[in-house]
Structure formats: structure tokens, C-alpha cells
């Protein structure tokens, strides 16, 4: 019997506690074994890696997962952090390849913002969300989708982002929306998915992020309020998206 193809996890953040936590959480939720069934690349450390040329995406992987990031997904203009520019320039050719081939993909937060731009959308900072847990309501299309149809009609998940999609790109379908940030869950073409929320963050994982981010996502004086509103929420309903995606596309 042929072995099943692994999943490719592109991590768009520096090495550290958060990178380790997101990799471990995805492995635990999906049941994929790190290094065997789940191959990960920390992109800030892989400066010479050409994701399309050097990796056999179509022949070697079941699907691609693209992580969130502490860096903005905005197109470089020369004033940004060098790592932000590196990530954008490395990822954009891969995203066009994935879209052109309708290759199974799951973009998380930053990952969806990059997918959206590759598909022609723009970003806005008008619907950013502080660290919190929000409700995402599936649309009729979301409830009928082959992957998201396995979720509850309303799920709760953590968010934390400055930018988000300003509009629905051509060829994309809205699968789930939020009360404040509208574009929370999308499908691009037939097999590419994106979430503005974070189905890979557990309650324990959110505590790691609160500790690591300091006052980058919130004022230092609001720390206790942030902890109170985040630690009291049950976000397990959103984790199902990870397992639904990997179960559907494992080949």
C-alpha cells in the first residue's frame, strides 16, 4: 500500500514558543505526525527557499497550510521590515501557483490575507480585531461546503489582527462571517480555504500569545482584561476546521 502524502505547513513567523505551539496544536488536532505526515518550514529562516521550484507541491503533498504571522501582509513599499518583505516575495509566487492549480490550501489569518491579495483583493485596517474570541456564523454556502459543512452553524474562535480583506475577491465564496469583521471564512475557487480567525489557537495557546506579544496587540494596562475575556472562552468548535480539512484532502 502506498503511503499517504504529507501536508506542507508554511510557518510565516520566527522560531519560538508561538511557532512551536501552532505546529504542535495542528498536529494534535489533526492526528498528523510532525516530520512524517506534517512537514513544516519556518519561512523567516529559509531565505533561499523557492517554494515552487524547490518543493514538489503537486506530486509530494496532500495540501498546503499557511500560518498566521506577526508581520503585515501588505505589499512591500520599501519601508517595511526586511523579514516582512522576504515573506511576501517568497509567498506570492506560491500563492499564484496554488490558485492557478486550484490546489488544496488552508490559509490562516495572514495566510488568508496573502491568498486574498493573490486573488485580487485589497486589505483594510478598518475591521481589525483585538485579541478576543468571536462568533463566526456559517453562510448557506458554508453549511453546504464539503469541508466547512462539517462544522457547527456557529463556531467560536480566537482572533487578533490589524488588517483584513476589504472585499470578496473574484471567484471566492463567503463561507462564514463575523459581526464586526465580515470576511472570516472564505473558499477561493474550489479547494482553497482561508480564515481570518485562528482555528489553530487553543486556550493555552492564547496565553502563550498574550505573554509573547506584550502590548503589541493591546495596551499594557489592558492585560488583565485581555486575559479575562480570552481565557473564559470555549473555542474548541473552531478546531474542527483543521481536522475536517486534513481528513478531506489527505491523499
UniProtKB/TrEMBL annotation:
Keywords: Glutamine amidotransferase. This is Glutamine amidotransferase. The keyword Ligase does not apply. It comes from Varibaculum cambriense. Residues 58-203 form the Glutamine amidotransferase domain. PANTHER family: GLUTAMINE AMIDOTRANSFERASE YLR126C-RELATED. It comes from the Bacteria. CDD domains: GATase1_1. InterPro entries: ChyE-like, Class_I_gatase-like, GATASE.
Amino acid at each position: 500500500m502506498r503511503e499517504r502524502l504529507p501536508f506542507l505547513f508554511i510557518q510565516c513567523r520566527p522560531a519560538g514558543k508561538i511557532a512551536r505551539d501552532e505546529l504542535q496544536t495542528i498536529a494534535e488536532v489533526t492526528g498528523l505526525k510532525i516530520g512524517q505526515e506534517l512537514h513544516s518550514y519556518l519561512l523567516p529562516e529559509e531565505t533561499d527557499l523557492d517554494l515552487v521550484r524547490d518543493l514538489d507541491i503537486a506530486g509530494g503533498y496532500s495540501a498546503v497550510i499557511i500560518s498566521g504571522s506577526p508581520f503585515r501582509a501588505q505589499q512591500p513599499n520599501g519601508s517595511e521590515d526586511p523579514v516582512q518583505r522576504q515573506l511576501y516575495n517568497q509567498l506570492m509566487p506560491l500563492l499564484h501557483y496554488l490558485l492557478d492549480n486550484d490546489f488544496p490550501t488552508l490559509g490562516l489569518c495572514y495566510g488568508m490575507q496573502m491568498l486574498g491579495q493573490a486573488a485580487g483583493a485589497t486589505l483594510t485596517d478598518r475591521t481589525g480585531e483585538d485579541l478576543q474570541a468571536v462568533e463566526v456564523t456559517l453562510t448557506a454556502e458554508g453549511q453546504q461546503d464539503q469541508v466547512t459543512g462539517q462544522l457547527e452553524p456557529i463556531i467560536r474562535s480566537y482572533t487578533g489582527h490589524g488588517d483584513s480583506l476589504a472585499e470578496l475577491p473574484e471567484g471566492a465564496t463567503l463561507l462564514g462571517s463575523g459581526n464586526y469583521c465580515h470576511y472570516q471564512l472564505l473558499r477561493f475557487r474550489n479547494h482553497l480555504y482561508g480564515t481570518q480567525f485562528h482555528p489553530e489557537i487553543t486556550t493555552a495557546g492564547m496565553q502563550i500569545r498574550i505573554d509573547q506579544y506584550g502590548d503589541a496587540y493591546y495596551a499594557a494596562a489592558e492585560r488583565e482584561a485581555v486575559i479575562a475575556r480570552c481565557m473564559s472562552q470555549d473555542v474548541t468548535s473552531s478546531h474542527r476546521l483543521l481536522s475536517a480539512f486534513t481528513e478531506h484532502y489527505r491523499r
